[in-house]
């Protein structure tokens, strides 16, 4: 698809009342078998072929020796309250976007849309509804939504922020749909129902990864789908300015993300939590700055491994100290773990020199 291709018909949703349900499925849609396509999922077939060792095991779930090891680790890693000694009261929460459709289902745009652009999921981990795009539905290929599991994980993070009394008073997100949807799901679980997301294009990941730059959902489409967007926020870099940087180097990308973070923090003097919902590489750029590590010499192999070191919905807490330095608080929230996945950040990678 060419970057400026002519729009195609996009009947993924109507502009009537049905389009105001955001990406939440109605109960009637959930109970309708016809809501799904019976096409075979390439991702599902691959999982069957590879087979998961944990699923193949039978008998007792754990040995006594393994149980003792787990109990010891639990004692060592109990969640701790935020350290407030010598702190200014300002805290930063970094959150990576939730599981994205195009990573789990690389073929989804070709299989879930018909020639008229009508969307129909073919796996239970795919959302029943997706936001209406006033442009080309093929733009989803480079601006993917999150999966149903991503939706759930985002709400789990939001619930934990609420229960742990770490709710943010301000949220900044990348313009990617996967980051915006992560924030939308998280917001459902917070107490402040008036809290909205500030979309900041300067927080987008490395542009040089893209042969075709994403056409992000315009603000009008997001508002029509009832996404909680702060329309009064003026971004540091506009979308057009970001597009002019498509040939940026990795160093320039890191500097862009860091400068955006610093500019935002300079405007936020209030005590409390500021949440950034961004990409794995953006998280790494900001943490390099907060950890006072070199951000000008990141090897390509490290850049290519960002997703594995900052998993989906990984969370990092930093607290500002009186000397304006930042301290990582690694055990504020419990992690999310299932099968062979955890959202915990690789601490060795995070603290590398």
From TrEMBL:
Residues 1-26 are annotated as: Disordered. One of its GO terms (molecular function) is phosphatase activity. InterPro entries: His_Pase_superF_clade-1, His_PPase_superfam, Phosphatase_SH3-domain. It comes from Trichinella zimbabwensis. This is Protein UBASH3A-like protein.
């Amino acid at each position: 698809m060419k970057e400026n291709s002519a729009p195609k018909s996009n009947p993924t949703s109507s502009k009537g009342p049905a389009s105001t349900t955001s990406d939440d499925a109605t109960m009637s849609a959930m109970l309708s078998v016809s809501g799904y396509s019976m096409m075979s999922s390439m991702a599902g077939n691959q999982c069957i072929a590879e087979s998961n060792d944990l699923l193949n095991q039978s008998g007792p779930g754990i040995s006594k020796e393994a149980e003792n090891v787990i109990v010891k680790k639990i004692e060592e890693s109990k969640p701790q309250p935020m350290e407030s000694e010598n702190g200014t009261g300002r805290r930063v929460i970094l959150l990576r976007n939730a599981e994205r459709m195009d990573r789990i289902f690389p073929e989804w745009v070709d299989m879930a849309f018909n020639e008229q652009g009508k969307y129909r999921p073919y796996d239970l981990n795919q959302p029943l509804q997706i936001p209406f795009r006033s442009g080309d539905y093929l733009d989803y290929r480079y601006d993917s939504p999150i999966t149903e599991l991503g939706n759930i994980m985002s709400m789990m993070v939001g619930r934990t922020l609420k229960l742990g009394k770490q709710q943010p008073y301000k949220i900044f997100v990348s313009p990617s749909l996967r980051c915006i949807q992560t924030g939308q799901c998280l917001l459902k679980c917070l107490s402040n129902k008036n809290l909205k997301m500030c979309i900041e294009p300067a927080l987008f990941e490395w542009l040089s990864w893209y042969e075709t730059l994403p056409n992000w959902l315009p603000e009008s489409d997001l508002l029509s789908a009832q996404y909680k967007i702060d329309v009064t926020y003026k971004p540091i870099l506009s979308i057009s300015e970001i597009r002019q940087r498509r040939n940026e180097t990795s160093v320039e990308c890191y500097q862009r993300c860091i400068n955006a973070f610093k500019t935002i923090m300079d405007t936020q003097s209030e005590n409390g939590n500021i949440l950034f919902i961004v990409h794995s590489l953006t998280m790494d750029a900001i943490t390099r700055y907060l950890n006072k590590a070199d951000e000008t010499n990141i090897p390509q192999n490290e850049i290519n491994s960002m997703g594995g070191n900052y998993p989906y919905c990984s969370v990092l807490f930093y607290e500002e100290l009186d000397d304006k330095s930042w301290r990582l608080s690694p055990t504020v929230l419990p992690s999310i773990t299932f099968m062979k996945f955890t959202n915990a950040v690789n601490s060795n990678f995070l603290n590398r020199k």
